[in-house]
Design goal:
Blueprint lengths: L1 H32 L3 H4 L14 H8 L3 H32 L5 H11 L8 H11 L5 H25 L3 H9 L4 H12 L1 H16 L3 H6 L8 H9 L7 H21 L1 H8 L7
Length: 277
């Protein structure tokens, strides 16, 4: 009994430490965004603002390119995730239900492509797109980002489909359904939590992707919130930290909202392997 209580206390201590490690920097960013620039640069530094103000947030929303940056972030993220799921769901079903020679090798090959650092492909991809005149092309950005999501999503979808009993497939096929009908009418509704989990992970990955857009869409009209945020740090007139922190908070809110709204489905998707037949 004493050992269990000690283990429980240790677990709570570790969890509390992890939460503090995460929350303290976030709290510092939010509180900094509420400070005046003089308050930010004051020495010794203060954790709480002396006179809280929303002026930095007003400046963010008044930025001329904020609306287009936000639209591009949403457009790229939704487009890439939709394309990745559209390609990965049938592939995951095929990987789960069909047997063919070299299946394991093919799946390992698909997974291995996700292990290649994006930076390693940056230069050759840039020269290829430049030669084809496809820089600053929204469709290309979506395809490139989706290509990075597909390998991992295929593996996720295979595991989600594996959790669905094969007897359901057999029952529908006895009734005359083909594989496509079985997939669309039976499998897809059952793996929706898994699709939601994959979509949330893909949205977070794509939303935070800086290097792809910065390299392949250098024009201001095609940049995203993440690119605009980094540009604030390299501004020639200097860094306004309260503005930068406000921009960071605002650019994080959409993805936080998506995670909160899809939290139930996300957790269900991650535990899809526990589904019983």
């Amino acid at each position: 009994m004493h050992i269990r209580r000690s283990e429980k206390m240790l677990s709570w201590a570790v969890l509390t430490a992890v939460v503090l490690i995460v929350l303290i920097p976030l709290s510092w960013a939010v509180l900094t965004s509420l400070k005046s620039e003089a308050n930010v640069m004051a020495y010794p530094p203060t954790f709480f603002p002396t006179e809280p103000s929303l002026s930095a947030y007003k400046a963010v929303f008044r930025n001329q390119t904020f609306g287009s940056d936000l639209f591009n972030s949403v457009f790229y993220a939704v487009g890439a995730v939709a394309l990745a799921v559209l390609l990965s769901a049938p592939a995951g079903y095929a990987a789960s239900r069909f047997e063919f020679r070299g299946k394991r090798a093919v799946m390992l090959l698909i997974l291995s492509t996700s292990m290649i650092p994006g930076v390693a492909l940056l230069v050759p991809t840039y020269f290829l797109l430049d030669a084809l005149g496809l820089l600053n092309n929204a469709a290309v950005i979506i395809v490139v980002q989706a290509a990075r999501l597909v390998p991992q999503t295929v593996w996720f979808m295979q595991n989600f489909v594996d959790a669905v009993p094969r007897e359901l497939d057999e029952a529908t096929q006895v009734d005359g359904a083909n594989h496509w009908q079985t997939f669309t009418r039976v499998i897809l509704p059952l793996v929706r939590p898994g699709i939601a989990a994959s979509a949330v992970i893909g949205m977070i990955t794509t939303w935070n992707d800086y290097i792809t857009v910065a390299a392949f869409a250098p024009e201001v009209a095609h940049r995203t919130l993440q690119v605009a945020l980094v540009n604030q740090v390299f501004d020639s007139i200097g860094i306004t930290w309260s503005y930068v922190m406000a921009y960071a908070v605002v650019s994080s809110l959409p993805i936080v909202a998506i995670f909160v709204l899809a939290q139930r489905w996300f957790i269900s998707g991650l535990t899809a392997g526990a589904v019983k037949g």
